[in-house]
């Protein structure tokens, strides 16, 4: 048996490879998406005060930092039994939308778009952000300006452009000034115009590559995401699961997620494989993220994004095609800018009533040692890549004793693996595989915008960490299982 290896998968956050196994006839017998890194943040959190989680977890990733900050804050709210004031919830949502603008603009224009603007078979030395800048400098400038708006929102609301700090148990620590509001409002209005121009460039590409959309990453799944009375939602609400036809099969509160979602490990990846517990593995495969959110939503409640959503639904219905994640991402980019403008036009956004405090102090560490009381908090938000779950258990003093993070990329892991395998079987016939075909396998992974540093945390006895030691010539000297 012979193997084709694509290592590394490029234009993603983190480190991964694809392997394709060929039988003696040159046909694909199997293929997998491998994630080889491990971060361990679930273990890092143990022993920390739970109120520190919103400051610790943004360090998981420099791209997804706001999502981890807010999921941790929501979980911490629950541990302490605190309810943030409405103004604080609006500030948190605005902060999250800032990350959507930053992350979606970065991914589509600079990580995903080179495959569409320059072509899947184009010269790999040009099929990147530099190639985009050379081919369409105005598009590149629009992308940079759009991304900056998202970073500016994060900096104002979150206190820092990277690794925000203002979301704490019970609300926010920083109110927005009238001057900051006016500045961001003007910026979001400009962003809407920039995104509209970008959509005008991108939409014809989905027609041009209609065949690739049908071919690459074929998989049919359930979909999951937060819901708000049928409206597209990013910050709050119950989690909803729909089947392949769009029918609702589950709807549950954040604290009950373990009744519906279970995780499995497989020998070829350090990234876990979540699935629907009541359906079983692998039939309970479900996806999250931009495509899932549009499939779940009945309505996108802003003008321009709502119109784009209507066109999308009329054309694709409950969309299963993997490359349509890019289309859905553009619609959400428009929604994020429009919804940010709505929040900034709301006078609540400059309210100073932004935090609820504890009415009684926590036990001391010494007192907690004499108590069997435990606390638990679960926070779910919609990160740009999909549903993000933070689950903390603490002792009576609020010290974390167990942490579980279920990250969006993990929830899409099985679909990425299946998509690679099925596409490899369709495209590869024999040992000679063109660079363009290899890139098309990478395109499947890029469509999900995976963040692998976010997604790989804890491992168990069934998934040991493998360390290979090679000499200067590349020969394997020793292998360790940790």
Automatic annotation (TrEMBL):
One of its GO terms (molecular function) is ferredoxin hydrogenase activity. Belongs to the [NiFe]/[NiFeSe] hydrogenase large subunit family. Mg(2+) binds at residues 42, 405, 457. InterPro entries: Ni-dep_hyd_lsu, Ni-dep_hyd_lsu_Ni_BS, NiFe-Hase_large. Its cofactor is Ni(2+); Fe cation. It comes from the Archaea. Gene3D superfamilies: Cytochrome-c3 Hydrogenase, chain B. The keyword RNA-binding does not apply. This is F420-nonreducing hydrogenase. Pfam families: NiFeSe_Hases. Ni(2+) binds at residues 61, 64, 451. The keyword ATP-binding does not apply. Coiled coil: none annotated. Fe cation binds at residues 64, 454. Keywords: Iron, Magnesium, Metal-binding, Nickel, Oxidoreductase.
């Amino acid at each position: 048996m012979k193997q084709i290896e694509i290592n590394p998968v490029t234009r993603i956050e983190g480190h991964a490879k694809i392997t394709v196994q060929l039988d003696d006839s040159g046909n694909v017998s199997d293929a997998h998406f491998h994630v080889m890194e491990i971060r361990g943040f679930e273990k890092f959190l143990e022993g920390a005060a739970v109120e520190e989680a919103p400051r610790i977890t943004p360090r998981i990733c420099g791209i997804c930092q706001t999502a981890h900050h807010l999921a941790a804050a929501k979980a911490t709210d629950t541990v302490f039994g605190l309810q943030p004031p409405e103004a604080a919830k609006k500030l948190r949502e605005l902060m999250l939308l800032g990350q959507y603008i930053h992350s979606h603009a970065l991914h589509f224009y600079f990580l995903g778009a080179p495959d569409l603007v320059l072509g899947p078979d184009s010269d790999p030395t040009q099929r990147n952000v530099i190639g985009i800048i050379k081919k369409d400098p105005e598009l590149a400038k629009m992308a940079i300006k759009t991304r900056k708006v998202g970073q500016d929102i994060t900096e104002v609301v979150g206190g820092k452009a990277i690794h925000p700090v203002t979301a704490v148990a019970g609300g926010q620590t920083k109110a927005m000034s009238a001057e900051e509001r006016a500045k961001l409002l003007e910026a979001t209005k400009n962003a809407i115009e920039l995104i509209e121009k970008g959509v005008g460039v991108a939409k014809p590409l989905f027609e041009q590559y209609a065949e690739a959309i049908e071919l690459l990453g074929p998989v049919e799944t359930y979909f999951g995401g937060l819901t708000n009375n049928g409206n597209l939602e990013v910050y709050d609400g119950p989690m909803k699961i729909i089947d392949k036809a769009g029918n609702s099969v589950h709807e549950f509160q954040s604290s009950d997620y373990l009744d519906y979602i279970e995780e499995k490990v497989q020998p070829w990846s350090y990234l876990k494989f979540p699935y629907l517990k009541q359906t079983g593995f692998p039939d309970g495969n479900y996806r999250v993220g931009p495509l899932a959110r549009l499939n779940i939503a009945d309505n996108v409640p802003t003008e321009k994004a709502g119109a784009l959503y209507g066109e999308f639904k009329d054309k694709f219905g409950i969309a299963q095609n993997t490359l349509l994640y890019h289309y859905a991402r553009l619609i959400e980019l428009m929604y994020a800018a429009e919804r940010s403008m709505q929040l900034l036009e709301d006078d609540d956004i400059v309210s100073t009533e932004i935090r609820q405090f504890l009415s009684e102090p926590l036990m001391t560490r010494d007192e907690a040692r004499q108590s069997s009381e435990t606390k638990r908090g679960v926070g779910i938000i919609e990160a740009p890549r999909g549903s993000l779950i933070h689950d903390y258990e603490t002792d009576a003093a609020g010290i974390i004793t167990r942490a579980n993070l279920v990250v969006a990329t993990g929830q899409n892991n099985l679909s990425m693996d299946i998509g690679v395998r099925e596409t490899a079987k369709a495209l590869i016939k024999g040992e000679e595989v063109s660079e363009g075909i290899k890139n098309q396998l990478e395109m499947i992974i890029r469509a999900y915008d995976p963040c692998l540093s976010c997604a790989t945390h804890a491992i168990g006895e069934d998934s040991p960490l493998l360390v290979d030691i090679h000499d200067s010539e590349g020969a394997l000297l020793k292998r360790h299982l940790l």
